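Sharing in case it's useful to others searching the archive later.

Someone asked me privately for the predicted structure of LysR family transcriptional regulator, so I'm posting the question and my answer publicly. Question first, with the sequence:
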Amino acid sequence: MTQWQGVAEFVAVAETGSFTAAAARLAVSVAQVSRQISALENRLGAKLFFRSTRKVVMTENGGVYYQHCRSLMDGLDEAERAILDLQTTPRGKIKMTAPTTFGEESVMPLVNDFLLLYPELELHCDLSNQLDDLVTQGYDVAIRIGNLSDSAMMARKLAARTRFVCAAPEYLDRYGIPHSLAELEQHNCLVGASDFWRFEEGGKSRNVRVSGRIHCNSGYALVDAALKGLGVIQLPDYYVQAYLDEGRLISLLDHYREPEEGIWALFPHNRHLSPKIKLLVDFLARGFGASGAV
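And my answer, the predicted structure tokens:
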């Protein structure tokens, strides 16, 4: 007798609540299911179900055993899917999420290029700044920016971003250039989702409260306002780098700039990284100019 004997029957009964339904699921006889469960209970020396003529209920021991057996069955299913994936063209659904603006500007154009290469793939993508529970929401991969704190996830760094404080030359000619964090109080700061801007001073992170005439949760709207000389902004490089290169915006307070933030691909620890997900992440990494293996 092996340790696997009776496990499939036990899980089927636990999930269906019936020996008859479990037998139908497994395409075996009810007597076969009953024999396997009895043999399993004898081997474990513990009762796994309370049985009556009307229903079957797991014991406390059965509940504990089920949690472990379900994980084993899931792992076996994942292993079989992994082998099948290796032998076939990438197909099926990919469920992913990414921050709204960065997703629109940088992630989705690359993902769309990826889908052109693999026409049998189907994408479900949520662009959102909400930090959903990636495991319970069933995401295969999530793109996140900044410091990571979720120990339930594996991560691969794809690239990095830098936040710039900047303003148009016309604004600076009129109101002057701030040289210290305290001088930001004298300027019209164009505020996004948060009225705190992040800096590094003396090797330590520092948040500075700012205020101004415009509050808007759109980075593009704030860039437009800054380009028109309405104030000072703090935004990631993918909003402003082109305008900095052209001289239409001037970078400010560079010696207080925080170190660059990581751009990450996250995966649940308990979910098999299938070849199609690895292909996608590798493609994104190349697109962002990163390197390394999952």
